[in-house]
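ok so for the tutorial part 2 we go from a plain amino acid sequence to predicted structure tokens. step 1 is just haveing the sequence, like this:
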Amino acid sequence: MLTTDPAGTVRFRERRRRVAEEDLAGRLRELGQLSTDVRRSVVRMIDGAQLGHIGGDLSVTDILVTLFGGVLAVDPEKPRDPDRDRFILSKGHCAAALYATLAHSGFFPLSELSSFMAPLSPLNGHPNRRKVPGVETNTGPLGHGFPVAVGCALAAKVAGRSYRTFVVLGDGELQEGSNWEAAMTAAHYDLASLTAVVDRNRLQQGARTEETKRLEPLADKWASFGWEVRGVDGHDHGELLSALRPSTTGRPVAVVADTVKGKGVSFIEDRVEWHHKVPNAAQVQAALEELSR
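step 2 — the prediction. this is what the tokens look like for a chain of 293 residues:
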């Protein structure tokens, strides 16, 4: 198991303080810089490993940064605190973005990111709770993480605990029927402490989601399953902060976050071949330069 980075924890707490206390412009500046740092780390990690899912990593970055930078009640020094908020990345193949966010939040040293997908590295291609602090459950097979999140939220309700549970799903992942069983269960038990965020980038492996199996009208589907639905720009930290607030209806919350696959790197954005394509050396340099502007 990796261990907490003390210096990173100090930075995490200071950032969280600023996000909580500054005006909206200051909050957005803090979260925007963190998103840029995470994206640059993702590019370097995938370059080093010559493996990964760069398109989905870049699309989900702003969601993860907003959660860890301004929403989740978590402490890198106490990753198993029983009162912590729970976060599950159901689209577990986008582990690079989660690892980078956790490292920039002090859960483990940034230097560990260079071991991404190396033999025997704790930073596997899919998150492992036994190896990485901040990972709640192992994910990878699509359609598994969301049901686990429902279980976490149900456990909180049964035990009378106040922690919240958040889960991020890919939109292509919603073609798995287990997700809709989980959605029905969450609504049936009025799990108001549960928030599901859909990374709606409209691309999946090999094709657009609507070509593979139509998801629209997606917001209406969630509403028909008994959820409080919020639609946002998934790259607008201000909109995300607002959308990730607690339920106002006593029902679970579904946030449909419109995103761009490959966000931040123009030649990767909204291109299906970058689901798990690896950039060459020139493309890595171009991506890092673009992410520095």
